[in-house]
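Re: the request from the purification team.
They wanted to know what the chain is likely to look like in 3D before they choose a buffer screen. I agreed to run a prediction and write the result into the notebook, where they can find it.
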Amino acid sequence: MDMKKRIHLELRNRTPSDVKELVLDNCRSNEGKMEGLTAEFEQLEFLSTINVGLTSVANLPKLAKLKKLELSDNRISGGLDVLAERCPNLTHLNLSGNKIRDLSTMEPLKKLVSLRSLDLFNCEVTNLSDYRENVFKQLPQLTYLDGYDCADKEAPDSDTEGYVDGLDDDDDDDDDDDEDEEELDDEEDEDDEDAGPVAGDEDDEGEEEEDHSGEEEEEEELNDGELDDDEDDYEEERGQKRKRDPEEDGEEEEA
């Protein structure tokens, strides 16, 4: 996906001026340059363009409120002078995994007076002798280089991961949303209990009633059969009696 389309998707029906955080990692840049990012993102504080094939930051628009810029795993070798002009309030800059070979490339970063954290992991410049000492001298405003201060004390998590004002608030909002969803699920369970038997239970009751009615029908058939037998016996007895009656009458006449 190209960078311009990715920016459109990341907006999610918002206007650029509403966006404070923009993550464009692993999309494709246009000829190694940024495309689709404009000065309309005036409230942007965090921008991440990791592994997008950048060779230059020349197309970076003016983003006065940008504080953290992720440019790691690209092919940038210079042209950092535009950063002080376009993003004067940068506090964190990650250039790890780029083509930076010498200290002079970072000379323009002196103008970023608010810059306190710089990362250059996996850049060739880190192989130079006295690399850390020289960078701290070159950029005296720095507090942390590659996650450590000049006394080799590790930076706290707040200075190395996700430093953006307002991002923690977004996380809190997400937690609130999860709690709301759980409450809704509980209410739905209570409603299901109050609703009484479900359709399956009614079917079972209907089957039981049918079974009872079937038994009743069988009993009625048995009773009918017994009555029929009694009637047959009765008719047979009457027939025999009729046969005997004439004989008895004849005997009475002879007498």
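For the purification team: Helices lie at 3-11, 81-86, 131-138, 157-160, 167-194, 199-254.
Please add any questions underneath this entry.
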